[in-house]
Amino acid sequence: MTLAVSLRHGFAGFTLDVEFAAPAGLTALFGHSGSGKTTVINAVAGLLAPDAGRIAVDDLVLLDRARRIALPPHRRRLGYVFQDARLFPHLTVRQNLLYGRWFAPRGPGAALADVVEMLGIGALLQRRPGGLSGGEKQRVAIGRALLSKPRLLLMDEPLAALDEERKAEILPYLERLRDETSVPILYVSHSVAEVARLATTLVVMEAGRVQRIGPAREVLSDPGAVPALGPREAGSVLRARLVGQDADGLTRLETSAGMLLLPKVDLPLGAELRVRIAAQDVIVARQRPEGISALNILPAEVVALHLGSGPGAVVQLRAGGELILARLTRRSAEALALAPGLPVFAVLKSVAVAQSDVGGAITGPELLLHS
Amino acid sequence: MPDWLTSDEWRAVNLSLLVSFWASVLSLPCGIAAAYVLARFDFWGKQLLNGIVHLPLILPPVVTGYLLLLTFGRRGPVGAFLEQSFGLVFAFRWTGAALAAAVMAFPLMVRAIRLAIEAVDPKLEQAAGTLGASRPWVFLTVTLPLILPGVIAGFILAFAKAMGEFGATITFVASIPGQTQTLPSAIYAFLQVPGGDAQAMRLVLISIAIAMLALLLSEWLGRRVARRIAGT
């Protein structure tokens, strides 16, 4: 199932003009506040009528201003998970979960028992929303949207209102949702960490325009996308497989860039993982460094150098089949005479791992491991 | 009939209850509709509708009663039509008293319900829409249950106001014992004759008792519903 969006909408002093297609999997709309991402998701949901545009899910046209088609929200059947869970206070959790079912067409769809099990909300069913924690409310809201048999799920910063602990509690459920259901997800976020962990496709928005679009791994390792992502948060995502647990407690992860050693990752052998390497946690060296505490040093080759307007620079390195971003100063880039084709070594200061979107295993909260 | 009441007094009490009950029950759907429209929609002429709804609150009741007589009297345009088509007569009947009470109580009812609707977060209604509920279903399954305390308050307020309505009623349907003489008209009538003080006082006490009972009932119902809706 593919969602095709093309929109133009004018605000005071700001025009939104975007076009993108969201394939199966989780498509993240990333951008800083005011970049227009919530406007896009609201237009898809039918809560906002754009000045011009067309929105379609496969052959079903939800909106076409030129042909004067605009389905009302209740006929679009898109499950919307809002930032504030918006549970119905007068209904129990169970009644909230089943609300959409009254209006959904008959036929196959997610079963209550499966959704309840997947989201871990079995113990809450008879309770009312008033007594739930923020994380619990959000899980119920996700279940409620899923049980309305949606064509796709829309999520507008579902974790933004939660503290770190609650975020960590929900992220694994979102990964399961992405991996275990066939419902495509359009996910709005301004957190690179969230996007790196969840997205299969990434749409980077800036000032009402689509700045970059593509498979999340490619966009995240594109040095040109760094200004839009934020230099402190930019980083590449690698695919890894757990291949060994050493006697001293270190875990061996195989990537096409080379072997990574991390403190204990509690997963079975063969587990597929996503490894996120923040650009600012990578040191670039011309020679293989000696006498250094870092365990993970990967041979690589400079692919591209991206100089910003300030004193910073971003280098894109190729290590095996993977692309890694490194953030350094313009002065260092010049001192090392970095240029495309130059062989270098990437020294990784820290590596974060999360469950991959290709694997089946379930991890706990995101582990930020210092190697 | 209790033996401490004369038949005229008893009839007045009975009639008042009958008139107030029908006045508030029949105006409830209109009251909810008017409150919903005023709270949730913006349209041309909204202020005009708001003004018309509230007019009975600020007009002298005698004026409202006279206008009712002009429109719904047997020779009034609406009154003549209703009599010919449905055999429905308002003038000098208890139905007219109910109409006058309903019109006078309407603004109070709409106000209470409108406040309740405005307190419901439209985002909840929006969420219900994205889950597949059309506007009427959203209203029935989300808005209405959430405003129930306000609806109850509005209903009881209207009932109490109808019990006490005097000016418009006496102007529109006069004060015919057993026909249109409600509690307040009866009290007034007893006060006009020498030696009627004791009868008037009995009816005054009954009025106070009914009003207090209505108030307590609405508080109790309101608290029950609010607890159910608070979501804890």
From TrEMBL, chain A:
<dbReference type="InterPro" id="IPR008995">
    <property type="entry name" value="Mo/tungstate-bd_C_term_dom"/>
</dbReference>
<keyword id="KW-1278">Translocase</keyword>
<dbReference type="GO" id="GO:0015098">
    <property type="term" value="F:molybdate ion transmembrane transporter activity"/>
</dbReference>
<dbReference type="Pfam" id="PF00005">
    <property type="entry name" value="ABC_tran"/>
</dbReference>
<dbReference type="GO" id="GO:0140359">
    <property type="term" value="F:ABC-type transporter activity"/>
</dbReference>
<dbReference type="Pfam" id="PF03459">
    <property type="entry name" value="TOBE"/>
</dbReference>
<keyword id="KW-1003">Cell membrane</keyword>
<dbReference type="InterPro" id="IPR005116">
    <property type="entry name" value="Transp-assoc_OB_typ1"/>
</dbReference>
<dbReference type="GO" id="GO:0016887">
    <property type="term" value="F:ATP hydrolysis activity"/>
</dbReference>
<dbReference type="InterPro" id="IPR003593">
    <property type="entry name" value="AAA+_ATPase"/>
</dbReference>
<dbReference type="InterPro" id="IPR011868">
    <property type="entry name" value="ModC_ABC_ATP-bd"/>
</dbReference>
<dbReference type="GO" id="GO:0005524">
    <property type="term" value="F:ATP binding"/>
</dbReference>
<dbReference type="InterPro" id="IPR050334">
    <property type="entry name" value="Molybdenum_import_ModC"/>
</dbReference>
<dbReference type="GO" id="GO:0016020">
    <property type="term" value="C:membrane"/>
</dbReference>
<dbReference type="InterPro" id="IPR003439">
    <property type="entry name" value="ABC_transporter-like_ATP-bd"/>
</dbReference>
<feature type="domain" description="Mop">
    <location>
        <begin position="291"/>
        <end position="357"/>
    </location>
</feature>
<feature type="domain" description="ABC transporter">
    <location>
        <begin position="1"/>
        <end position="232"/>
    </location>
</feature>
<dbReference type="InterPro" id="IPR027417">
    <property type="entry name" value="P-loop_NTPase"/>
</dbReference>
<dbReference type="InterPro" id="IPR017871">
    <property type="entry name" value="ABC_transporter-like_CS"/>
</dbReference>
<dbReference type="InterPro" id="IPR004606">
    <property type="entry name" value="Mop_domain"/>
</dbReference>
<keyword id="KW-0997">Cell inner membrane</keyword>
<keyword id="KW-0500">Molybdenum</keyword>
From TrEMBL, chain B:
<keyword id="KW-0997">Cell inner membrane</keyword>
<feature type="transmembrane region" description="Helical">
    <location>
        <begin position="137"/>
        <end position="159"/>
    </location>
</feature>
<dbReference type="InterPro" id="IPR035906">
    <property type="entry name" value="MetI-like_sf"/>
</dbReference>
<comment type="function">
    <text>Part of the binding-protein-dependent transport system for molybdenum; probably responsible for the translocation of the substrate across the membrane.</text>
</comment>
<feature type="transmembrane region" description="Helical">
    <location>
        <begin position="51"/>
        <end position="73"/>
    </location>
</feature>
<feature type="transmembrane region" description="Helical">
    <location>
        <begin position="12"/>
        <end position="39"/>
    </location>
</feature>
<feature type="transmembrane region" description="Helical">
    <location>
        <begin position="94"/>
        <end position="117"/>
    </location>
</feature>
<dbReference type="GO" id="GO:0015098">
    <property type="term" value="F:molybdate ion transmembrane transporter activity"/>
</dbReference>
<dbReference type="InterPro" id="IPR011867">
    <property type="entry name" value="ModB_ABC"/>
</dbReference>
<keyword id="KW-0813">Transport</keyword>
<dbReference type="InterPro" id="IPR000515">
    <property type="entry name" value="MetI-like"/>
</dbReference>
<keyword id="KW-0812">Transmembrane</keyword>
<comment type="similarity">
    <text>Belongs to the binding-protein-dependent transport system permease family. CysTW subfamily.</text>
</comment>
<keyword id="KW-0472">Membrane</keyword>
<dbReference type="GO" id="GO:0005886">
    <property type="term" value="C:plasma membrane"/>
</dbReference>
<feature type="domain" description="ABC transmembrane type-1">
    <location>
        <begin position="13"/>
        <end position="216"/>
    </location>
</feature>
<keyword id="KW-0500">Molybdenum</keyword>
<keyword id="KW-1003">Cell membrane</keyword>
<feature type="transmembrane region" description="Helical">
    <location>
        <begin position="203"/>
        <end position="222"/>
    </location>
</feature>
<dbReference type="Pfam" id="PF00528">
    <property type="entry name" value="BPD_transp_1"/>
</dbReference>
<protein>
    <recommendedName>
        <fullName>Molybdenum transport system permease</fullName>
    </recommendedName>
</protein>
<keyword id="KW-1133">Transmembrane helix</keyword>
